[in-house]
Design a protein that fits this description.
Helix content: under 10%
Strand content: over 45%
Shape: globular
Number of helices: 0
Structural class: mainly beta
Oligomer: single chain
Order of helices and strands: EEEEEEEEEEE
Radius of gyration: 13 Å
Number of strands: 11
Length: 113
């Protein structure tokens, strides 16, 4: 079955960095667009970044200078490098398979001094 398992979150001070990872299984990972989302107030989600099968990326405009998405299709892994983190980046982050409409369990990222 489809599994998306996030790791790498935690507590970091403002200005710090974190690298989120997502281990995907149960579907042909390399064939599909993958995304990172985060929860927003009201239990909604916003797309932070998206990466297409060919490696082309799309990052939310306000995050382009700090967040980088990447993938390793040989390992079925999705990554999100987050630099210069700000308190407003605090959220639960999810790995999301767009076509299958499947989301991982989420991982907490807290940016606080």
């Amino acid at each position: 079955q489809v599994q998306l398992v996030e790791s790498g979150g935690g507590l970091v001070q403002p200005g710090g960095s974190l690298r989120l990872s997502c281990a995907a299984s149960g579907f042909p990972f390399g064939d599909y667009t993958m995304s990172w989302e985060r929860q927003v107030p009201g239990n909604g989600f916003e797309t932070v970044s998206r990466i297409f099968p060919n490696g082309r990326t799309d990052v939310k405009d306000s995050l382009k200078d700090r967040f980088t998405i990447s993938r390793d299709n040989t390992r079925n892994m999705l990554y999100l490098q987050m630099n210069n983190l700000k308190p407003e980046d605090t959220s639960v982050y999810y790995c999301y398979w767009d076509v299958g409409r499947r989301r991982g369990q989420g991982i907490q990222v807290t940016v606080s001094s």
